[in-house]
Amino acid sequence: MAALAIRRLFLLPGRALCLSRRGYRGDAPSDSGRDLLEIPLPPWQARPQEPLETKRARLLYESRKRGMLENGLLLGFFAKENLNQMNEKQLDLYDRLINEPSNDWDIYYWATEAKPAPEIFENEVMEMLREFTKNRKREKRLRQPDLE
User: Fold this and answer.
1) How many domains does the structure of the chain reveal?
2) What CATH number did the domain enclosing 89 receive?
3) Which of 35, 49, 80, 112 has the most Cβ atoms closer than 10 angstroms to its Cβ?
4) Keywords assigned by UniProt (predicted)?
5) Is residue 29 part of a domain?
6) In this structure, is residue 26 part of a structural domain?
7) Is residue 15 part of a domain?
8) Euclidean distance between the first and the last CA atom of the chain, given in angstroms as a whole number
């Protein structure tokens, strides 16, 4: 009954063009970007004196706690599978990869090859991560891996 009354309201002469104009029609002004707040992060610093086992434990934690689910899962599984086999140089490259970029989406796009990585991150660890991301074994990676 209510639907019929609404239909009659819009079909009255002179009301055919009175449909709501609240919807987005593409005529919004361009974004000025003035409300964008960029928070400066401290620069990444290598930790050459850090013991390897401490570094592996820290990198595992930092891989799991990314602040975005996609990278938490991707890097958490990658770290669990690879950190124990990495040498010190590879651990340093991985440390730089996950801690220097200020935007986690960049890491995700580089790993999934949606965007090219900067030259500084094109190395053996990035190759390992890209190969891992392809998930050739079709593993289910729907939640963080168990800690052991």
Assistant:
1) 1
2) 1.10.150.250
3) 80
4) Chaperone, Mitochondrion, Signal
5) no
6) no
7) no
8) 63
Contact 133, 112 (CB under 8 A): yes
Q: What is the pLDDT of residue 21?
A: 47
Q: Is 70 exposed, middle or buried (0-12, 13-18, 19+ CB in 10 A)?
A: middle
Residue 16 lies in a domain: no
Q: How many residues does the chain have?
A: 148
How does pLDDT run along the chain (148 residues), one tens digit per residue? 555 555 555 555 555 444 444 444 455 567 677 777 777 778 888 898 999 999 999 999 999 888 888 888 899 999 999 999 999 999 999 999 999 887 889 999 999 999 999 999 999 999 999 998 998 777 776 667 777 7
The position carrying tokens 């935007």 is 103
Q: Is-contact 68 136, C-beta < 8 A?
A: no
From CA 15, how far away is CA 123, in angstroms rounded? 65
**Scanning the structure block, which residue is given the tokens 């899962």?**
73
| pLDDT score of 19 | 47
Could you tell me the two tokens for 127? Answer: 């190759």
CA-atom Rg of the chain in angstroms? 25
d(CA 37, CA 40): 10
Q: Show the domain range for 96.
A: 52-133
